Amino acid sequence: xxxxxxxxxxxxxxxxxxxxxxxxxxxxxxxxxxxxxxxxxxxxxxxxxxxxxxxxxxxxxxxxxxxxxxxxxxxxxxxxxxxxxxxxxxxxxxxxxxxxxxxxxxxxxxxxxxxxxxxxxxxxxxxxxxxxxxxxxxxxxxxxxxxxxxxxxxxxxxxxxxxxxxxxxxxxxxxxxxxxxxxxxxxxxxxxxxxxxxxxxxxxxxxxxxxxxxxxxxxxxxxxxxxxxxxxxxxxxxxxxxxxxxxxxxxxxxxxxxxxxxxxxxxxxxxxxxxxxxxxxxxxxxxxxxxxxxxxxxxxxxxxxxxxxxxxxxxxxxxxxxxxxxxxxxxxxxxxxxxxxxxxxxxxxxxxxxxxxxxxxxxxxxxxxxxxxxxxxxxxxxxxxxxxxxxxxxxxxxxxxxxxxxxxxxxxxxxxxxxxxxxxxxxxxxxxxxxxxxxxxxxxxxxxxxxxxxxxxxxxxxxxxxxxxxxxxxxxxxxxxxxxxxxxxxxxxxxxxxxxxxxxxxxxxxxxxxxxxxxxxxxxxxxxxxxxxxxxxxxxxxxxxxxxxxxxxxxxxxxxxxxxxxxxxxxxxxxxxxxxxxxxxxxxxxxxxxxxxxxxxxxxxxxxxxxxxxxxxxxxxxxxxxxxxxxxxxxxxxxxxxxxxxxxxxxxxxxxxxxxxxxxxxxxxxxxxxxxxxxxxxxxxxxxxxxxxxxxxxxxxxxxxxxxxxxxxxxxxxxxxxxxxxxxxxxxxxxxxxxxxxxxxxxxxxxxxxxxxxxxxxxxxxxxxxxxxxxxxxxxxxxxxxxxx
Amino acid sequence: xxxxxxxxxxxxxxxxxxxxxxxxxxxxxxxxxxxxxxxxxxxxxxxxxxxxxxxxxxxxxxxxxxxxxxxxxxxxxxxxxxxxxxxxxxxxxxxxxxxxxxxxxxxxxxxxxxxxxxxxxxxxxxxxxxxxxxxxxxxxxxxxxxxxxxxxxxxxxxxxxxxxxxxxxxxxxxxxxxxxxx
Lengths: 789, 182
Hints:
The complex is a heterodimer. By secondary structure, chain A is α+β, with helices and mostly antiparallel strands. Chain A folds into 4 domains: 9-235, 2-Layer Sandwich (Aldehyde Oxidoreductase, domain 4); 240-309 and 369-444, Aldehyde Oxidoreductase, domain 4, CATH 3.30.365; 317-360 and 455-534, Aldehyde Oxidoreductase, domain 4 (2-Layer Sandwich), CATH 3.30.365.10; 576-788, 2-Layer Sandwich (Aldehyde Oxidoreductase, domain 4). Chain A contains 24 helices and 26 strands. By secondary structure, chain B is α+β, with helices and mostly antiparallel strands. Chain B has helices at residues 24-31, 86-93, 103-116, 122-129, 139-153, 160-175; strands spanning 2-8, 11-17, 50-53, 56-59, 71-73, 179-180. Strand 26 of chain A pairs parallel with strand 6 of chain B, so a sheet runs across the interface.
């Protein structure tokens, strides 16, 4: 262990080296200089003081030194309490902070999300990295620049307004020979400047951020710093960390959900090579061996007797929606009600009604959940890709009854995480095993475990009723949603993780998942939206527990709502784009200019696509005479400040039911764009993830267990499903687009949200069939087409 | 215990194996310290663990180490003397990875595909890559990167730097000029 970050040397190198420029990286690698030079820098000193004597104290967000360190070579390292699952937020953070600090991008590096080295910004979630968490980063960088200008004013004997800053060097405007670098000003010392703010998002100093027209690094298409090491094989991932004396563990899950462990026959594995120990508490069971493949083998060989539960934990997946519709809700919340929908539905000229269904869908990471826990020195270090590293740290401390300052999480790269997932669970499990064995334990879930037992995005049923007047305008709409989101995986809450539930630990009251409202700016004079939560017979120890999955309810809710808007447009014989624009134009709300920006975004999507105005479906058009039916659909929504409208163009094979989304156009208004390449890639991938959920993803189960256990039983999007073209149109629909205080909003979840709806609407346009049940598998589409002919 | 000789990235290793069926993946990762191939499913369904053996992309999670006779290449072995393979460069130029966990499999399968068929059609790319999964859904960029690499390797594109500057940058510069619509 090196003395400063108190990480293994190679890790220390990894955490920093990943984001240096390639040339610097290879130089440092070949010279072996990085660790040595790093240890001698103020980063080391700052961190050693922050960390205290052998304790993992919380870095103080109200100290500028927690966020920014200027090195003697006039480079800087930024420390932020976020994580980057590959959406390029790390690069974007550097860009924002570089602009405010006035330093060249390639003279900086960034450390993220490790609980004893970066301030607690909560890790990632909600696509708010830029929208919310970027603000303290910008403010503290601006404050550092302000402080350095004051130091320079003394040093150069020139008033601050007579100084100019460029590339971390401050000069006199009149006499450019008079100049001094940031590093010279600090002389190896720390800033020692306090900040203010009653919460982490409000953390700032005196200085304000620059106006948009003075930003130089923000807006540049800078390539992501993390990509080269992911491509040349040099990156050390959380999955790769190895420590002396480390052993390997694998879990053994109940064969039937809710089963009670009666007995374990340890002799079934104790003679196996490398066997170390069977660990059991309650219904949690794991095997530990010296080598990884030994642990995998032993977990399969271990004989244990389980008693099945007296009541089936859940209905089979084919009967799930009937179950949900008949269940008594645990809560009924009315949201966004206005007018008198009951009366106006009575008075409407035409009423239609439709039911929609969305199954459980999984995070289902490409790499099964893993973590390495090290209990050395009576403390606990967890190497993890959990995007909520701070919650993991606090939760493990409580779970193991350790003082918080003896637990830390070192955040490292790992397979994608889009919310509360098994990346959490496995961190708790590894820590428990390490705590029991007193040696470093690496645990990884197997594929069947990941697919079956990871948290799920909630299943939904919807009933929508809408009434049109004689002019074909919506006069009333009633929306009734039921979410299966009971006993939701909580943030920071050790009672809700799987290992705790298997041990019989229960929270006082199970958390309900948020049954979200719909997000649109439509003028609908009379409406009622009711969101209900229902629960399954078994709420504990179940693989059908829910956790936030990429805009936790948005894809489901938007599917139902935006499909129903198209159904209403069809009976109104209106073009779907014009139908939406009409309702947006009549809206009177305009918070965050969402009305104006929604109009701009829907128009931009239609224009970029080359949308021809006509009602759906497209059945009468000559191009649809053949085996391949073609259609297009639009869906629109917003998430927080980001507005999105997506057009999907589909080809449906009349013989096989196979849907190919050939072209996607997404108009995306997220205000100020920090990095256009990162934004474009994030939007593309979020759309395709939505497409995967639209076409393929469904968690299947019988009355004993989840039967989706691999990529055959839980299909996901593949290369052959990839659209021929994906266009991302960056919109700035602000009424004053050149405003110097233009705000940045989020990306990722917003464009993920309307995908299912856009595809459903396009399939209807092509075939005349409404797909009201997700996913739109070839079989289901074929059945729909056969039923309609 | 038996000693197995493995030739990996040009170096011969002798490894003690106590189980004849032990998959190559665990030897590469845990005995030889390689980090390119990763565990994804253990079922040969996703491709995350792919290595190239004598020019053929194979799934090391089910391949018994004791059975391998040929020359094994891992992701780390694609680049030599600090020079990235054209495929790796194309992956950077197209900014392909998100989380990157599966990209070992994508790159190694693309490498084997292009070595076999240096100028694949779009259909051949889709078919050749079909069994390699990505849960970040970077497929669109993977396919673009394969086309870019194919262009470079067949000489259709003369200057890779010039091309590097073209597609991503033009797309992004265009995207970076927000269109005022209202």
